[in-house]
Amino acid sequence: MMASIQNLIADNHFVVFSALKVVVVIFLALLPMVAYAVLAERKISAYIQDRLGPNRVALPLISSIPIIGPFLTKLGFWQPMVDGVKSFLKEDFTPAHVRKVYFWLAPAITLIPAFLTVAVIPFGSTLGNEKMVIADLDVGILYTFGIVSLGVYGIVLAGYAANSKYPFLGGIRSSAQMISYEIAMGLSVIPVFLLVGNLNLSSVIGYQTGLLHILGATMPLPNWLAFKQPLAFLIFWVAAFAETNRLPFDLPESETELVGGYNTEYSSMKFALFFMGEYANMITSSAMMVTLFLGGWTLPFWGLDQPATSIPMGLAHIGIFIGKMLCFMVVFIWVRWMLPRFRYDHLMDLGWRRFIPLTLANILVTAFILWVKR
Amino acid sequence: MIVKRDKLNFWERLYLPAIIGGFKVTLRHFFKKKITMQYPEEKWVVPPGYRGAPYLVKDQEDRTKCVSCQLCEFVCPPKAIRITPPGPAGSPEAGNVEKAPKEFEINMLRCIFCGFCQEVCPEEAIFLMQDYSLTGTSRKEMIYNKEKLLALGGVHQDKIQKWKQKADEAKEQGVKP
Q1: Any chain A CB within 8 A of the CB of B176?
Q2: SS3 content of chain A, % helix, strand, coil (to 5)
Q3: DSSP class of residue B155?
């Protein structure tokens, strides 16, 4: 029996390990991260608003452990579990006036692209003989942009399917907003690939090793593209906010004017899917920013910028990657309370009349410098 | 009135001052003392004069002060009070001297906590106290009867002590109280 299983693994090495990575990354890493991102959002929001946030849920046995148990309860550590149960137990109401097929399809279409993008992101160097990326595609970034642009369909479809005014407005806004910022986002990464000369995300990370050199002088900064291409980084970052519908660009949802926008008519698990989609998008765009601009799983000291040779090192790389990602997540959450929502024309103005010309100029300047240096 | 808007300068158009300002405010509040009250453990202290739930009180001699005059029942705007007087036979212990009610019910679901009952009561037998969160699992449970109202109301530290004065007067006149 064991022998036959080993044979099976040996014969289908790639398939088995890819499936394993998918299961581990999606179900054991991404979904819990989504759940805890929601908790972090609630906690940080509460603290910024002088509140305490969720601090009640206690598990029977674990919460009676001294110090740790009450601490976890105060942290709201068990809250995501209860939230999940609540989403499932709530009534899944389908209003009579909705277009049913699209109404059912939209939440899935929002969530799936968010999960698909994770496939190409190298979340670590190697663990044993396995590369820590689900699919090491040569067209990594093109794949990402292709998938991300599918995400807008979910929201537009939700707005259309709901067949009522607020979701419809939300859908229209999101289509315009996300398409506009996708252009800025796509253009902003072109200089990165001009420098790297490759679309594969693993080689983007490989490019960002060591220390930064400017005009032959070594700077005490890591050789990350965030320092080489600060403008591209900034624009990508802001566009990521717009792509994930986060404040200050949450016009598709804007509770105050659109009563929740595209998800107004949704309830129960369908609403939860939109919610998870938003957070999964935040996580994947954080991961993209870390990979493209902050050196992915590398750190420029202790030889942490070379592919791992041992298992602890491989785990350390995964830890570094997640750590960098979490910083971006906190910024995502924090910015929500820092800035008011943009007005619609300002949003479009920022996207089309500021970012796109700036990115185009950035491409030209980078190309020119590379041409001169050649 | 037309408010003249100043043109934003270069820095302001970069949104930087707004971002820094927003960050300062959020950071300050993040580390500020939290104002959340942990409700079931910590409770709000109601100010004096607060109109909470109306309860019946006893005097210092442990006697029910209510005399079933039914003024509160009459004045109650939402008709939350129902009094059953003892009837012509009176109560077995006190006879017809003071007509303590046979039953006194307040429907706390109807009560609007207006305080008219307290205001109208000639015997100072009913008071709006400090309870503000009345809960129950059924409508029936929310109709408080005499026993419950008296238990919740407790003793009223009455300065006048009508019955003590009456007893003193009787003693002076040489009559058995």
Answers
A1: no
A2: 70, 5, 25
A3: B
Query: What sign for the dihedral angle of Cα A226, A343, A51, A33?
Result: negative
Q: Which residues of chain A make contact with B15, given a CB cutoff of 8 A?
A: 339
- For B67-112, write each residue's pLDDT tens digit: 888 999 999 999 999 999 887 777 666 666 678 888 999 999 999 9
ipTM for the complex shown: 0.75
Q: What is the pLDDT of residues A81-115, one digit of tens each?
A: 888 888 888 888 888 888 888 888 888 888 888 88
Say yes or no: B5 contacts chain A, CB-CB below 8 A: no
φ and ψ at residue B87, rounded to 5 degrees:
90, 180
Q: Cis omega (within 30 of 0) on the bond before A312?
A: no
Taking an 8 Å Cβ-Cβ cutoff, which residues of chain A contact chain B?
A: 44, 47-52, 334, 337-339
Report the sign of the C-alpha dihedral through residues A312, A313, A318, A319, in that order.
positive
Q: Which residue among A50, A334, A337 sits closest to B32, beta carbon to beta carbon?
A: A50
Enumerate domains of chain B plus CATH numbers. 54-158 (3.30.70.3270)
DSSP string over B26-86: HHHHHTSPP----TTTS-PPPPTT----EEE-B-TTS-B------HHHHH-TT--EEEE--
